[in-house]
Amino acid sequence: MVRIAALSDIHGNLPALEAVRKAVDAARPDYVAICGDLVFNGPDPVGTLALVRELERAGAYVTIGNTDVAVADGDFTAAFPWFTEGAPDSYLAAAEWARDQIGDDGVDYLRRLPWERRLRVGDAGSPHGDLILFCHASPGSLTDGFPVDLDPVVTIDRVSGTDAKVIVCGHTHVPEVREVGWRTIVNAGSAGYVFDGDPSASWVLIEIEGEEIKAEIQRTTYDVMAASDAVSARGLPGDVYRAATIRTGKLVR
């Protein structure tokens, strides 16, 4: 049996990441994956990035997310293509603040992160049961995700971008496990900025044994009010909404 712990969308929320790290350590997985959106929005991008890099040195698979592109390169069209008239000022301010906080070394680290990572498990001769894909939104895209209400035809089109049997992602901030034909989409949700109404940090534990795949969403509590208050105290445009989102587990804007 192979066990994989995956998390995504930390968004600079260090207390949430620290709590998830403890829970993951207790689960003793064989592999750990972190699927992007590391520093944007939250109160502690420096501490968050330092812990992510520590986890990577210990073997974690880390990929970039769309908001990491906004922070590292200021390419807001690539990061937020749905804003056809330009990203809001609150997004620009949050990205610039995070960029200043993490400095040149942090920016260089984000730029070096791959879009995707792959892991082969089990029988290498299997036609597709041995390949796991870690990405942010979907195969080949940082922004086209798998929301729960996505049209099935579009879902099939997006999963067809890989031969992986298991696609591990985030981006939507809503955890979910979904089967699409012989593939399984495992959305870890968000470790630091959840949208499903439960403010606890979400992550996922995947168990693969032969052709059997078991993926269970995990919820880990942390000091939500402390994280929310830290965002409020920062005072950037939009921070009142970010703080409310962290506090309630629902997107507030």
Structure description:
The protein is an alpha/beta fold. The chain has a single domain (2-124, 188-248), classed as Metallo-dependent phosphatases (Purple Acid Phosphatase, chain A, domain 2). The protein is 36% helix and 22% strand. It is built from 8 helices and 10 strands. It has a 5-stranded mixed beta sheet with strand order 3-2-1-9-10. A 5-stranded mixed beta sheet has the order 4-5-6-8-7, covered by helices on one side. Helix 2 (45-57) links the parallel strand 2 (31-35) and strand 3. Helix 7 runs antiparallel to helix 8 (239-248). The longest helix has 24 residues, at 89-112. It starts with a strand and ends in a 5-residue tail after the last helix.
